[in-house]
Fold these 4 entries.
Entry 1:
Amino acid sequence: QGVDKIAWDASGERLALSCKRGNEMYHGLIAVYDIRRTPLISKSLIGFIKGPGESSKPLAFSFQNKFKQGPLLSVCWSSGWCCSYPLLNW
């Protein structure tokens, strides 16, 4: 159980993470959080990203720093798909 993979966006305001295999409820999902640091550090769950296909799992993911419209999360899934998710209104 616990966190398997983690990625921060360049602003430090978005956090994406995936869970290890022991947690079947969240296995295969990427949780996206909004992080605030003023005056204290706080987090809010924004939502989950599910990959294409029946049982795809995130193999690797990262935020792209040069996307001007906001956070862009790119994910490579075990199904063979690589997808980019713009988090414009998150």
Note: The chain is about 0% helix and 50% strand.
Entry 2:
Amino acid sequence: MTSADFHASLAHALAARARALPHAPALHCAGQTLSYAGLADAVGRRAAALAAQLPPGRIVALAAPADELAWTLLACQWAGHPFLPLDPAGAQRPAFAAAAHCLPRPPALADAAMPPAAVAAEAPALVVATSGSEGAAKGVLLPHRALAAAAEASAARIPLGPGDAWLACLPLFHVGGLSIFWRCFAAGAAVRLHARFDAAAAWREIAAGAVTHVSLVPAMLARLLDAAGDAPPPPTLACALIGGAALSRPLWRRARAAGWPLFVSYGMSETAAQAATLPPTDDWHEGLVGAPLPGMEIAVGDDGHVRVRGRQLMLGYLGGEAPIEDGWLRTGDLGRIDAAGRLRVLGRGDDVLVSGGENVHPLEVESLLAACPGVADVAVTATPDPVWGDLVTALVVGAEPAAVDAWSRRHLPAKLRPRRTLAVAALPRNALGKLERKRLRALLAEAEARRQGEAGGRVAVSAAARPSEGGAHPPLGRMSRSDRRVVQ
């Protein structure tokens, strides 16, 4: 099915599959399995109930568990309403949610189903909250065109078809979980929806051969490997799509050794999920995310910043302007493009530390420190210093600072070596496992205060030697002209 066959909406894709594959499984949810025909009828009836309440085009919001979000998503798409899914555990609703009609529960079942509403390709289908890891969450307006194009482009890199089943255990209030429905309905595959991520339950389904595809963030992959005891997945598992946060080389090495088919991706809410994807390879290093998907272009400018353009781009932000110039979206990430046209992400532009005049990318240091024995989690930030500017500072979980420093002296280049290391109980991460970097300096200040006030307490610190002129290395942010490229 191409984007032209999609008739611009998820609902029309579902209706088309209900006609072509009426008895094929479409959704496994809350202990029941619905065929494409059965799902289309149930969704059409819920959409009819929704249409009786609201005029077409009104944004509909709901904060609820995954199964209720799924039903509301499908009913909204069928009735022609943009859907804003909200985190049911969120302490407060984002400010942009005030523009939506918030439902108390999913739409009920009407007596009869309505046909899917006609929608324009550029009409908004979803309002997706960004992760908020870089500050206040924004409401990304994704049109039907972008979501249909993303599903079609994904299929060009990740084969998917009737008889396949995609395990949906990511939150449905982020684009990574929502996009699974577009991919599966475009391909005639089934969605296996879990209420929440449970590593043991997910591994049971994978091990039983019930799942051919799964979307994971790195933290979920690590827990699945633990649940499996590093046993290999069955050959029925064709794809483990990794995204949402940076994958470390130790975790990649562990998963590949166990035989997991890792597809490493790069994307964001603003690109309707994947913009680039790297198929399984035995030659991978940190940050490598592959070539852009069909219909997308990726450029890295002289300043090292990654920009993207193509048919998957958002319309803009709800209540705000689109940061798009001449069709290009500035992502805020730093990267390089290799000779094969593959993107390597180096980190966020705002996160770069300047220590002794050298640029240091926290993501690169974190990836290296993840290989240190005993380190269960790690984040790198800066301690302000009057001489050196930013002192590279590591916050580690599960290891003693002195041991980390000793390991760093043996294995890390001088400019990447932490000059201070603190042990903390946990790091601030969001629902997708992404570091909330804005909170790291506050955590650092708290840890230092406790260290000074509690001799022998949980928080420990080690101060390594400061940078020396002889240990300087060319910063990653300075790129040769061969890195300043556009790929498509």
Note: The two ends are 22 Å apart (CA to CA).
Entry 3:
Amino acid sequence: MRPVFDPTDLQRGHAYRMVYDTDGDFRRFEYHVDDDQFLQVASGGTPSVFNAALVDYQKRREQVAMHGEIDSENNSLFAAMVAGGGDVQVAVDMAQVFSGEIDFNTELRQGDHFSVLYEQFVRDEVHVTSGDVLAATFVNDGRQVTGFRFEVPGEAPAYFDTTGRSMKRQFLSSPFRFEPRVTSRFSYRRLHPVLGTNRAHLGVDYGAPTGTPVIAVSKGRVVSAARSGGSGNMVRLRHTNGYETYYLHLSRFAKGMRRGAAVAQGQVVGYVGSTGLATGPHLDYRLRKNGTFVNPLTERKNLPPGDPVPDAHMAAFEQVRDRAMAQLTGRPAPQDEDLLSANN
């Protein structure tokens, strides 16, 4: 059995079952490996012969629409998502969809509300895992933002607003895949927590546990990844349009962080730490434009969006948009084509 599955990988608490025929003879043993596969060891017809295989679970893909609201008890996107019966991963993905429009750490207000249409995978009528966010709308302080997943032929799937304008910005709203906690803002005069003197703080501090992955807010190249005095372990990236980003106090660097290396938007560049002059684990994130440090929380909104849906594919996009919006609002949706293949 070892070429198929190592018995030492058996995990406490994983479900299994033994199957016998009507005569009480052993037929097969099944063991739950993970959400995608189970181990099956079946009788080979003789007492000493068994056949082992990893078998894929049969899962059904569904589309689910859910709604949530930010209130005093559920004051974050994550909390509101879970309270509404959704999945934390859906909240993570939804935050990424709107990362160019809403800062979910600093801009949420009580009374904000959202609807999201996403895929989920079901096995034996039980939710196994969530898939892609297909569409979402968020009303933030009275302003409604809506995004739809659409794949332009030959390109990776992306998100666009109701007019086909790209939801993507050159920079993500933060260097984390979740809603980070801002512990100190950009300021030209701040009491330094270690030195005890007033000095400029030309970045934004995010509180997070040691080892939390830190991601590149935009694609670029590594200028340096090294120890840098009071900044501790620091990664510096160069981007287009005169921008550079800095990630300070890291506990360690991600693999491949060497001078000149290309970095993709959303790629892990390091891990939260407290190296250098730091009172505890956090990330000091800085943004420089044409040689001058600027406030990352406000600068991102000045950046232009990505490419819109090409004119040649607008009709297909509009069909996807209209079907998704119908599902979000509970109206009957068209039945002529599948939502995900309408652009083929």
Note: The helical segments are 77-83, 88-97, 296-299, 314-329.
Entry 4:
Amino acid sequence: MGISTVSREEVLHLARLAGLRVEPAEVAELADLLTRLLEWGLALPEGSPDGDTTDRVAPPRRDDQPLPGLSTEQALAAAPRSHDDLFIVPPVIRRGSS
């Protein structure tokens, strides 16, 4: 089962939703990559139709062991900026700018 090719407009729409700036020269390559990714996903075998996962083997897990953590002073000592026992970090997402 094939899918239609991801369009230029869809690439730009996804980029806007993700807050990414895409250069015009990158759009065609991204459309091709997204199309191939979707085709790959459709080619994967489906899971059990009834949702039964008893045939899957879970990976072994280690026992969690609590360890002492850093004091507030120790953690903040490595921070470039702090205020009132809090880390000050630069904004990650700026709304309204593109």
Note: The mean pLDDT is 87.
